[in-house]
Design a protein that fits this description.
Elements lengths: L1 E5 L4 H12 L3 E6 L11 E3 L14 E4 L10 H18 L4 E5 L11 E4 L12 H13 L4 E4 L3 E2 L6 H7 L1 E2 L2 E5 L5 E2 L2 E2 H11 L5 E4 L6 E2 H11 L5 E5 L1 H18 L7 H7 L3 E3 L2 H7 L15
Parallel strand pairs: 1-2, 1-4, 2-3, 4-5, 5-7, 6-16, 7-13, 8-12, 10-15
Antiparallel strand pairs: 9-10, 11-14
Helix pairs in contact: 1-5, 2-3
Amino acid sequence: MRVAVTGASGFVGGAVCRAAAARGWEVLAYGRRPHADLGALPYTSWDLVHGEPPAERVDAVIHCAGSVTDWGPPREIWRANVTGTRNAMAAFPGARFVHVSTASVYDPFRPTVMATEDEAPVRRYVNAYGASKAAAENAVMGAAVVLRPHAIYGKGDTTLLPRLLRSIRAGRLLAVGSGATRLSLTSVDNLAQACLLGVTAPPGAYNVTDSHPVTLDAALRELLRERRLAVRPLYIGESAAMRMAALAEIISAFTRRPPRLTRYAVGHLAVERTLDITKAGELLGYVPAPTSFAGAALW
């Protein structure tokens, strides 16, 4: 199997490259950064929006590249997620295409309760990230395997874990909602497994999470314990958190600095966000491990 991986210099793309190489596949790694720490794997810097596409033939493409920010210039986010996806598919005509999307394509204005794949996309989103990822899905749906993870974590995480650690104040981890909120999380290892399975799966959308949902409080306490941090979660109610996030976004508009808390983030932590992964099990052969933060002290 000869496979191209986009976003290879990032968290998810790098994990997919290593998993594919471990299976004995020939991996061609592409990313926007000048260099990537992928050992002996061949790596090429490629700007998916403006750069010339590579002249390579592959059996499959696993498209992990894109903008994952919930706060930033909308035009840049749309270019990265929609134009970049279209260009990645066009660069390798005839290759099977696996597109890493997100659970943010589900309705952000109501709880997501064991959602099945037919519940997305929806008509409106709270930011450019959700809207652009839905548009990217529409651009490839029917010709690609589309994977929808939620809250990806694991070794090399550059988004979720750093944001949590920045929320620690005076021995407390500030969190929103209640600790009883149920969430589906996705370890990067489970996602990499799904990406490799997707190479030979029928086109369509698939939810990809850990084996079972967890509560927010249980997840946070395990993570803090594994990181050896003597910190306890302190929960802020959803309505108060939404007001704080709205104020932070207003201030950010003037300072040009990303807000510490966004309404998008509140919406993904304060209410249930769980996904049904039955379809992935039946059609991908996906058998995920349970949520675990074992070894998080080394992340």
